[in-house]
Amino acid sequence: MTAVNAVLTMIAQLSIMIAMIQLVRGLQRRLSRLSKTPSLISWSVLTVAVCFFIVSVSVPTAEAQSASQKEQPVSQYKSIIQIVFDFIQQNYVEEVDPQTLYEGAMNGMFDALDDPYSAFLKEKDMAELDQNVIKGSYGGVGLYISGGKPNFIEIASPIEDSPGWKAGLQPGDYIIKIGTESTADLTMDEVLARLKGPAGDKVDITVRRGKELEFPVTLTRAVIEVPTVKYAMIGDIGYLRLISFSNVTAERARQAIEFFKLNGYKSLILDLRNNYGGLLSTAVSVSNLFLKSGTIVSVKSRIAKQNSVYNAAGNPVVPENVPIITLINHGSASASEIVAGALKDHGRAYLVGEKSFGKGSVQQVYPLRNSGFKITTARYYTPSDVNIDKIGIPPDSEVLFPKFSGEDSEQLNKLLTSKAIPQFVENNKNAAPGVVDGFARQLHDEYGLDFSLLRRLIRDEENRTVIAPVYDLEYDVQLQEAVRIIRENIYYSLIQNTKTLRDLQEEVVEEEAQAS
């Protein structure tokens, strides 16, 4: 018996069961008029009748399920979905809008993939997506996010100079509420829909940082135009920061390198922190600026003809004798991980910072009349043939910013709620270092928090009131480490001892095998 026939049989059996129950209830009413103990007699009859019915139909139903498990062609499941759709339309206690059933079924299928980057897109979602692509900007708060139900939404990276960035939101923060609504039961696209809106409107969110710290943030939506490149000289070191991978990023990076050449650069720091990615083609073009030969990235799909390998073009702009240090953190994802992975696997750059985000997948958007869907169709693989999806790229040298401990959470929450730091910055524009240090000591005495961390909070707030500086060597400990490696001439000894991502992965497997 096929699965379709099994479903039809089940529906027929349900109809018979309903009729049986109605018959027994009628008998129950008659017995109630004849018996002094109607409840005992009538329910006994009803129980026997229902049990008899269940026994009589359970065997063929089980046989049908067993048969369907043995042969599960896709066409049968399609037919079952259609049968259930029609059955609900005809038999549900209330009339149901077919579009509601359609959208519910579509959402259910994509939820079953357990992939935060694959989702059904309603008509309004598709229209918004098209509008953003055409305009190249949108009204929002400037946050790249990840995750979705049943977990809270994680901030992967704030866009520089955006409302989210100016509010001090950081990679690894979680948005646990939007207004009074918990994000635990919302998809990523539902959260995006609530964060986006007309420029000038406000949106209230609640943020969780670490395990205990929670605080409210009010963001004023703005027109978000994603920047792409910033650069400057740090002595004889060229500092190149890639903020996103748009269709102009590679050319802007090339121009920056020409600027470095004119200023006599001897080494280069490539900053990919908080860069949540962009175009695959741009990641390849940027990698070509530094690599002379070899694979940059492979894209692998279930469909063999869609697989592709991108190799270096062979004409790098940065000579091989120029040391390169690449900065990464948890906000480095997708296209930035392609570049970091390629440079690491080829031994062309030394990585400093924190483990990257781990988004090694490719998505495409497909229209369905007025609606549509986006779906993961392939994965990226680094030159050593490693996929870093949900794993990330570890740095060669881990350097972490100081963090508040759990014990400090209550005091930090009080400080953030008091708005003391924003008020100080507002009332003391361009304050001298001594004035800032004095205020930090005052906060230290009042809240008992670490002085250096308080000083950094004040500096961060100062930076948010203006266009972000190209770099901040005074408080950026990861950048400080990159400069130290170059200044102390230990780059070449360090780069010789680096390992490919494949080597690191095999070491982990071996360690796990030994532990078990």
Walk me through what this model shows.
This protein is α+β, with helices and mostly antiparallel strands and 516 residues long. It folds into 4 domains: 3-96, no CATH class; 123-224, PDZ domain (Pdz3 Domain, Roll), CATH 2.30.42.10; 229-396, 2-enoyl-CoA Hydratase, Chain A, domain 1 (Alpha-Beta Complex), CATH 3.90.226.10; 406-478. The chain has 17 helices and 19 strands. The strands form 4 sheets. Strands 3, 4, 5, 6, 7 and 8 form a 6-stranded antiparallel β-sheet that branches. The chain has a 6-stranded mixed β-sheet with strand order 10-11-12-15-16-19, with helices on both faces. The model is unreliable at 16-21 and 33-64 (pLDDT under 50).
Portion in beta strands: 15-25%
CATH architecture of the largest domain: Alpha-Beta Complex
Main beta sheet: strand number and arrangement? 6 strands, antiparallel
Question: What's the end-to-end separation, in Å?
Answer: 46 Å
Count of helices? 17
Count of individual domains: 4
CATH level 1 name of the largest domain = Alpha Beta
CATH superfamily of the largest domain: 2-enoyl-CoA Hydratase, Chain A, domain 1
Uncertain residue ranges = 16-21, 33-64
Structural class assignment: alpha+beta
**Mean pLDDT reading:** 84
Relative helix content: 40-55%
Secondary-structure topology with pairs:
Elements: H1 3-34, H2 38-70, H3 74-91, H4 98-111, E1 119-121, H5 123-135, E2 138-140, E3 143-147, E4 153-158, H6 163-166, E5 174-178, E6 181-182, H7 188-195, E7 202-209, E8 213-220, E9 222-224, E10 229-234, E11 237-242, H8 249-262, E12 267-271, H9 280-288, E13 295-300, E14 308-311, E15 324-328, H10 335-345, E16 350-353, E17 361-368, E18 371-381, E19 397-398, H11 409-418, H12 420-427, H13 433-447, H14 451-464, H15 477-487, H16 491-495, H17 501-515
Parallel strand pairs: 11-12, 12-15, 15-16, 16-19
Antiparallel strand pairs: 1-18, 2-9, 3-4, 4-5, 5-6, 5-7, 7-8, 10-11, 13-14, 13-18, 17-18
Helix pairs in contact: 1-2, 1-3, 8-9, 9-10, 13-14
